[in-house]
Amino acid sequence: MNTIKDQTNLEQAPSTAMLEGRDLAKIYRLGSVEVPALRGISFQIDRGEVVAIMGASGSGKSTLMNILGCLDLPTSGQYFLSGENIAGKSEDELAHIRNQKIGFVFQMFNLLPRITVRRNVELTLFYSTGNGGKSWKNPRQRAEQVLDMVGLSDRMQHRPTELSGGEQQRVAIARALVNEPDLILADEPTGNLDSHTGSEIINLLLGLNKERGLTLVIVTHDSAIAAQTQRVIRLRDGLIENG
């Protein structure tokens, strides 16, 4: 599905899709210059679907990912997450939605090096609770549970610097899962890993989709990774390519 220009369509009720964009546009302003990053794109991603987002540098991938993750708002158009219109939300409301519904996995692991693996995951629960996220009676037990889920039950007391790259990314995935999100957004999750370790991480994410029904959106340059997803959204110059 590509650009929708009919404004009456924008006023219709949201679909049952997990993610839906309607005529999304994003324009960055640099002084008097306007730089369009997204030029009016429309799409749907169903609950439990695995979708890859691909495109060259400057195609709008990062901008779209930021909007999907409620880290930014579109300049125009509508974005629905689980049927809720995100456009016009305040920063506090966006933080609450992120903590309730979304887990992020980035190319850079973004772990705190001076504390243990378990503590890295556990801290996410404390930050989340302060921003309106779920409250856990035993955060330590929950952190241990998700670390076991990603195969790191024997590495909980290690610091991130004592782990391999693949193990650090598993910690990052555990951190993304700890609040039981409905949606995982993975931005180049294998970009800092060798091909074998990268395959293990993708298999882990795909396994979580199958076992837990998580909706999974992966930004990637790797066509081999994209081939393992159910569908590919290709961006070019801020538009979705047909076919």
- Major sheet strand order: 6-7-8-3-9-10
CATH-defined fold name? Rossmann fold
Count every beta strand, where a strand is a DSSP E run of 2 or more residues. 10
Arithmetic mean of pLDDT: 90
User: What class do helices, strands and sheet pairing give?
Assistant: alpha/beta
Keywords, please?
243 residues; alpha/beta; Rossmann fold; 6-stranded mixed beta sheet; 4-stranded antiparallel beta sheet; 8 helices; 10 strands
Structure overview:
- This protein has 243 residues and is α/β, with parallel strands linked by helices.
- The protein has a single domain (49-72, 90-240), classed as Rossmann fold, CATH 3.40.50.300.
- Helix content is 34%, strand content 25%.
- The protein contains 8 helices and 10 strands.
- The strands form 2 sheets. Strands 6-7-8-3-9-10 form a 6-stranded mixed β-sheet, with helices on both faces. Strands 2-1-4-5 form a 4-stranded antiparallel β-sheet, with helices on one face.
- A hairpin with a 2-residue loop joins strand 9 and strand 10.
- Helix 4 crosses helix 5 (139-149).
- The radius of gyration is 18 Å and the shape is globular.
- Residues 1-10 have low confidence and may be disordered.
Entry summary:
This protein is of the alpha/beta class and 243 residues long. It is 34% helix and 25% strand. It has eight helices and ten strands.
Topology of this protein?
Blueprint: H1 7-10, E1 19-30, E2 33-45, E3 50-54, H2 61-68, E4 76-81, E5 84-85, H3 91-101, E6 102-106, H4 117-130, H5 139-149, H6 165-177, E7 183-187, H7 195-212, E8 215-219, H8 223-226, E9 231-236, E10 239-240
Parallel strand pairs: 3-8, 3-9, 6-7, 7-8
Antiparallel strand pairs: 1-2, 1-4, 4-5, 9-10
Helix pairs in contact: 4-5, 4-6, 5-6, 6-7
